[in-house]
Amino acid sequence: MNRVIIVTGASRGIGAATARLAGSKGYSVCVNYLHNEAAAREIVREIEKAGSSAIQVSADVSSEPDVKRLFHTTRERLGGVDALVNNAAILEHQTRLEDLDASRLSRVFATNVFGSFLCSREAVRRMSTKHGGQGGAIVNVSSGAARSGSPDEYIDYAASKGAVDTLTVGLAREVAREGIRVNAVRPGFIYTDMHASGGEPDRVDRIAPSIPLGRGGQSIEVARAILWLLSDEASYTTGSFIDVSGGR
């Protein structure tokens, strides 16, 4: 049976690792991206080289029309949607709350929160047995920041991920009887280029000595947790979280 997955923000980091791993496990993969078409196209080539189908689709998950087009294109070109990974997220430069403004809050919450809601809504409309679907699974990529609050750095990002945690629990209970499982992973300090967006590319190296395992994590380590939650091995798991954080 052909399984189709949409991975948002899949041109880099955790999203890219998840898309590649999903392809290696037989999924047909929609690689969503916003700006970096060349990177998305390369991931598609890697997935196809490994023997699976893949497409790249540019869409801004904070835009309702873009999200509708993302799901429509996936169904038209790959044949449906069985799994969704809400990975697309942004953060901005490290700062304290007193220096935040409304425009920054709007940007962060539009992508990280509204995007996850909109993509989940479109997935439910297609997966739910209530709507004639065959069921499916959603994994939200949250963050350890949802628990720590990320003081002096990214309180807004942390709060957005706290909202994603609440979405995970609420939606899991809402659609449990409709064949859809909803879970989340909470990565800790992972080596991705997102840290450069916050103004500190070497942030993981700075924090690593305080992590019980003594190192930062790799994107593939998060991807493995995501694919397990999507798999039949996690068939009795919903509304749950895996902290991929090295023990911190």
Would you give an account of this structure?
- The chain has 248 residues and is α/β, with parallel strands linked by helices.
- The protein has a single domain (3-244), classed as Rossmann fold, CATH 3.40.50.
- It has helices at residues 13-24, 37-49, 64-78, 102-127, 145-148, 155-175, 194-197, 203-207, 219-230; strands at residues 3-7, 27-33, 54-58, 83-86, 136-141, 180-187, 241-244.
- It has a 7-stranded parallel sheet, sandwiched between helices.
- Strand 1, helix 1 and strand 2 (27-33) form a beta-alpha-beta unit.
- The mean pLDDT is 96.
Summarize the structure.
With 248 residues, the protein is of the alpha/beta class. 45% of the residues lie in helices and 16% in strands.
Please supply descriptive tags for the structure shown above.
9 helices, alpha/beta, 45% helix, 248 residues, seven-stranded parallel sheet, Rossmann fold
Structural class: alpha/beta
Gap from first CA to last CA: 39 Å
Portion of residues in beta strands equals 15-25%
Number of domains: 1
Estimate percent helicity.
40-55%
Determine Rg (CA atoms, Å). Answer: 17 Å
Tell me the series of helices and strands, N- to C-terminal.
EHEHEHEHEHHEHHHE
CATH class: Alpha Beta
Q: Label the overall shape.
A: globular
Strand arrangement in the largest pleated sheet: 3-2-1-4-5-6-7
Q: Report the total helices.
A: 9
- The low-confidence parts are none
Q: Assign the CATH architecture.
A: 3-Layer(aba) Sandwich
**Major beta sheet summary:** 7 strands, parallel
Query: How many β-strand stretches?
Result: 7
> What is the name of the CATH topology?
Rossmann fold
Q: What do we call the CATH homologous superfamily?
A: NAD(P)-binding Rossmann-like Domain
Mean pLDDT: 96
